[in-house]
Design brief:
By secondary structure, the protein is of the alpha+beta class. It has three domains: 194 residues, no CATH class; 96 residues, no CATH class; 77 residues. A four-stranded antiparallel sheet has the order 3-4-5-6. Strands 7-8-9-10 form a four-stranded antiparallel sheet, covered by helices on one side. Helix 1 runs antiparallel to helix 2 and helix 2 runs antiparallel to helix 4.
Length: 382
């Protein structure tokens, strides 16, 4: 999720009974809830460096614990410095119950516990997006995802903002509003889970007779609620014909009822948008309106030259990141081959691919291969 959502969610849970931990609760939760995205500093080493480390160790077990301790330490040091400043400046009236301001501070152990909660919730909110996260890094560099939420969910943002704006007049009202927001969030996730299953159920009608039969044998890790990649690449079925490798339903920004279906076949990716509130696709008036006639197709053809390009550092890096890398290649009059992979998750629907937008180059990789097989150039982007 985006950092604004992480921040607003941290402020919301800071209004729950967790606030009883003492002063510094909200600051610790906000810091820890954003801390895993500290991997953005790897951009200093270039876009390839960022792609290598993005949502890696900072989103794994060691990163969560380490960043939680760092976040708690920063808050603890800040509190002590602030208390010393108040003591020297004699700022503010004395406490009415006779306690010092420092006695209201959350303990260091409690700050660590709160920070662990914040970092865990960051990763938990990244997991149900189509972007995914590397949950077990650095022990396992595979990506994990549950395709329920777009990277930015306007409905989630609206609920979080409303909960923080209203009911600020009393602690009881703040806790009540926080509880309401958490219920709305759970309902949002639950609705998207139901609609995700419904979107996948429409696949036979959406693709009709164009839907390829499953590859034989099935991929060893199969199709599961949590998608894991990279996977072993399937080419054709045992009969040598085009076959279905994987199905996925990608969420969109606009509505929990609009989904992008991705059908990965052995030589292409086939994409189809579906609006589950629009029932017309179920009963077309005539054959010319059949939904499979509007399917987008992205070729994914692996030649020996594409395989050579995949062995480069950039090829391994991009194919380790990309869930649905569509491979294309073109040969110029001099025999030089340009191989380009594009992650079709970010071509339409959930995220529009605009190469002029900062960060868009993460979703395309290009490798130029000479006539004798030597690598001429490697770059992210077109």
């Amino acid at each position: 999720m985006d950092n604004l959502t992480h921040t607003l969610f941290a402020l919301t849970i800071a209004r729950t009974p967790l606030s009883r931990a003492g002063r510094g609760t909200a600051v610790a939760l906000v810091l820890a809830s954003n801390a895993p995205d500290i991997d953005i500093v790897t951009l200093a080493g270039g876009t390839a460096s960022y792609l290598k480390w993005h949502r890696g160790p900072t989103h794994g077990p060691l990163g969560i614990l380490g960043l939680a301790v760092v976040s708690a330490t920063l808050v603890w040091i800040g509190q002590r410095a602030y208390d010393r400043w108040r003591a020297t400046r004699d700022v503010g009236p004395p406490s009415t119950d006779g306690r010092s301001v420092s006695s209201d501070n959350a303990s260091f152990g409690m700050l660590v516990a709160l920070s662990i909660v914040g970092a865990l919730l960051h990763v938990a909110m990244d997991l149900p997006t189509q972007y995914g996260t590397r949950l077990l890094s650095p022990f396992d560099w595979r990506w994990f995802s549950i395709d329920l939420m777009p990277i930015v969910d306007v409905y989630l943002l609206a609920a979080l903002v409303a909960g923080l704006i209203f009911g600020r007049q009393s602690p009881a009202a703040r806790q009540r509003n926080a509880a309401i927001v958490l219920v709305l969030m759970a309902a949002n996730y639950g609705l998207r889970a139901v609609e995700h299953a419904q979107a996948l159920a429409t696949v036979p009608q959406l693709f009709g007779p164009t839907l390829a039969p499953p590859c034989d044998p099935q991929p060893p890790d199969g199709w599961r609620p949590i998608d894991v990649w990279p996977r072993r690449r399937a080419t054709t079925s045992s009969t040598g014909k085009r076959c279905l490798v994987e199905l996925a339903a990608m969420p969109t920004f606009t509505s929990p009822f609009r989904w992008q279906i991705v059908a990965q076949v052995s030589n292409a990716y086939e994409l189809r948008d579906v609006d589950l509130l629009d029932l017309r696709f179920r009963e077309p008036d005539d054959e010319s309106e059949a939904p499979w006639r509007t399917t987008l197709r992205y070729p994914n053809v692996w030649t020996p030259t594409v395989t050579r390009a995949a062995e480069t550092d950039l090829g391994r890096l991009f194919l380790g990141f990309s869930r649905f890398p569509a491979a294309r290649s073109a040969v110029d009059p001099h025999g030089v081959t340009t191989v380009r992979w594009t992650d079709v998750r970010f071509t339409s629907g959930g995220v529009a691919l605009d190469q002029r937008r900062p960060g868009a180059g993460f979703f395309t990789a290009t490798v130029t291969v000479g006539t004798d097989g030597h690598i001429v150039q490697e770059r992210l982007g077109r």
